[in-house]
Amino acid sequence: MFAKLAGQGLLGLKYPEQYGGEGGDYLHEAVLIEELARIGSGGTAAGIGAHVNIATPPIWKFGSDDQKRRYLAPAIRGEKIGALGITEPGAGSDVAALRTRAERIEGGWVLNGEKTYITNGERAHFIVTAAKTTEQGGHHGISFLIVDRGEGVSSSKLDKLGWDASDTATISFEDVFVAEENLLGGLHEGFVLIMANFQWERLAMALGAVAAMQLAWERTASFARERHAFGRPLCDHQAIRHKLVDLATSAHTCRCVTYDALRRFVAGEDPLREVTMAKLLTQRASFELMDACLQIHGGAGYMREYWVERAARDARLGPIGGGSDEIMREILGRVLGL
Ligand SMILES: Cc1cc2nc3c(=O)[nH]c(=O)nc-3n(C[C@H](O)[C@H](O)[C@H](O)COP(=O)(O)OP(=O)(O)OC[C@H]3O[C@@H](n4cnc5c(N)ncnc54)[C@H](O)[C@@H]3O)c2cc1C
User: Fold this and answer.
1) Is 29 within 8 Å of 72 (Cβ atoms)?
2) Could you tell which of 53, 54, 87, 119 is best to mutate to test the pocket of ligand 1, judged by most ligand atoms within 8 Å of the CB?
3) Measuring from atom 16 of ligand 1, which residue has the nearest CA?
4) Is 84 in the pocket of ligand 1 (CB under 6 A)?
5) Using one digit for the tens of pLDDT, what is the confidence trace for 131-150?
6) Ligand 1 centroid vs 325 CA: distance in angstroms?
7) pLDDT tens, 222-248?
């Protein structure tokens, strides 16, 4: 899939032509995200999305020309797959608590530690990795290193509820040598990189959710028109018809809130409030819509044969990944002066 998408220019929509990109912008990427969500496999969208929306943007924004040639260009060509390694067994929401340590030696760093729940963690050729570069770590002691899969890097795939088509893995670093030229951005300035892409990552998740909601609604409405109970189509029963109306209203509301945040983001504003609200609203609403669609399918909805059980499992990740609902509420609490 990576090679096929690259062949159509879809892995480099927003990236400059000099590195093989299409020279487009975030709006082009937004269309890709919605269309990927419409293929109906959350895992596929997640694997491609991790590569395009979270692993390569820091290289594009903070990388040297040499780093862009060595990592961004082959990533756009689909030759190298990227992953973003921030989360650790002991540090998820509390990113500053991460323990992976990069110790300075001549010519670079020696990296030791463990990352977990990393999308593309098994197949990635390089991992954009957050590590402590001071003894204390924390907000002023974390840096990013681009780590090639090689000696000292091992990974193991995790089993999960949904997103089966994406590989999610634990990655261990054991005395991994990382050359000086693979420091991404400023030394001890890793938090700047983390914060810089959060808005886009969360917007991307919101866009994926609204497209998945739309698809699920269309499929469920058509099921409710065809399936009969008590001598008439399901949607001729008022309770089901009203449910479908509520779901359409929810999907539309989510789209409006997301597009408002996207419009502001593309216009160059700093729409922290709107993006955070869009992420918070859409992820829970998407899971609730999938669950309601599953209910309308009755027993069929519980069967592997039907798309909707997968959609419900895939949607469950939204309120957890990319900053959980609780963390979105914490951010909004601060933004709203509470
Ligand atoms: C399928 C999948 C793919 C992922 N892909 C990646 C990836 O590619 N790269 C990467 O770096 N990470 C990835 N993650 C990790 C993801 O970002 C974290 O799981 C998420 O940030 C939550 O962290 P945690 O799992 O450690 O939960 P914790 O931080 O331990 O939180 C546990 C619970 O406590 C709540 N909580 C935590 N702090 C507070 C608080 N202050 N107030 C109230 N409630 C709180 C949380 O909301 C959550 O409900 C992925 C996760 C999954 C499941």
Assistant:
1) no
2) 87
3) 321
4) yes
5) 999 999 888 999 999 999 99
6) 10
7) 999 999 999 999 999 999 999 999 999
